Amino acid sequence: MMAKRTLIKSATILTMDAAIGDLAQADLLVEGDRIVDVRPGLDAGDAEIVDGRGRIVIPGLVNAHMHTWQTALRGFSANWTLPEYFRRMHAGLATVFRPEDIYIGTLMGALNQINCGTTTLVDWCHNNPTPAHSDAAVAALKESGIRAAFFHGSPKPEARPGQPHFSDVPHPRREVERLLAGALSDRSARVTLGLAILGPHYSNIDVAMHDFRLAREFGLIASMHQGGGPAKTPGGWEKLLAAGLVGPGVNIVHGNDLPDDLLRQFVDLGVSFSVTPENEMHQGHGFPITGRLLKLGARPSLGVDLESVLAGDMFGVGRVALSMQRALDNAESRRTIGAIPASTTITTREALGWITIEGARMLGRESSIGSLTPGKKADLVVINGTDLNLCPVHDPVSTVLMQTSIANVESVMVDGVWRKRGGRLLAEGIDNNKNELGRSGMRIVAEIERQGKAA
Ligand SMILES: [Zn+2]
Question: What residue ranges define each of the domains in the chain, with the CATH number in brackets?
Fold first, then answer.
């Protein structure tokens, strides 16, 4: 039997593949889970035809960093700085999550990502006190239909009497082996495994060494938060560098306080970076390192980080990243040469790259996702450029990056399967699941108040 074929006709197609470029009035053919052709005037016989007139087709967005388990606490932490967040979220609310809370939060968070045009989610799940919690998150990601990297991490409660602090606990090898032998054994599946480790900022040096080696042994990405207060292991990075453990497959999230010399070494060694600009500015991380990376010839991937603080919309994240860095660049120009730059320091196309192909690169999957290139997975978003807030479209890249919102995300395809059509998410049971999500959030908050740990 021939695989199902879908032909999007007469659309503006932003492939984000430099060799193909932007195409006006062009067609895109999907067969099974793959893009097989992109060009004007395609004919595909029996394919399902999608009228692309007035539409802008882009690669599915990649959200390179989000703690999806916090979805039931939307907005709850919006007025907390990072120290408050550590105390009240990680040492508080997080401790009363049951596997079913992880499940419903992850499912609904992932569905909302699809709704917003994200087709690949790096779910940085660091609230897995038991294997049942991990299994719940993985099951929810699979059910949602999104492409996901489940980054397994451990919780961060206060140390209990007689038990070690989390920063002294190595990443659990047994759990990694269990996941790789079971739910996440297929490395080419839609949902795969990565490690959300502590890194030298949040663990002692022995734990950091152990965790870097563990990730390398299993060929998994080792992702870690970097920054927010003093490091647990000052000089830890130098030791990891000396041990030859820093290179491709290492992913640094935030990194705002990293000194220039370390940043340069990391870039040269092929480390990837995930910036979460909006949350970094709110919670007190400092200014995002977007511009510092660009100066070194590197590019960031971007992430939402926390729906307990802000919106889950990657178009917004791309826009905030760009405006923040333009503001810094403009201020620097005014300070050094006494004038506004003659032309913009960063284009909208570069920023669109951060939320597409650079996210794919962060996962080491730039050969299979991140652009509308024949042979790649069919992960794409159809935007209605005739909408009131988007027309007329003069520069489709800028329309997408500067003006598109969830309301304009008409259709979303992941792995060759439509997950949103005609502005409507195709998942079943959404209303029931909204009630479930609400109950989960209420229960978590009530439980932490009962324990007297709300503040
Ligand atoms: Zn984070």
Answer: 5-59+375-422 (2.30.40.10), 61-359 (3.20.20.140)
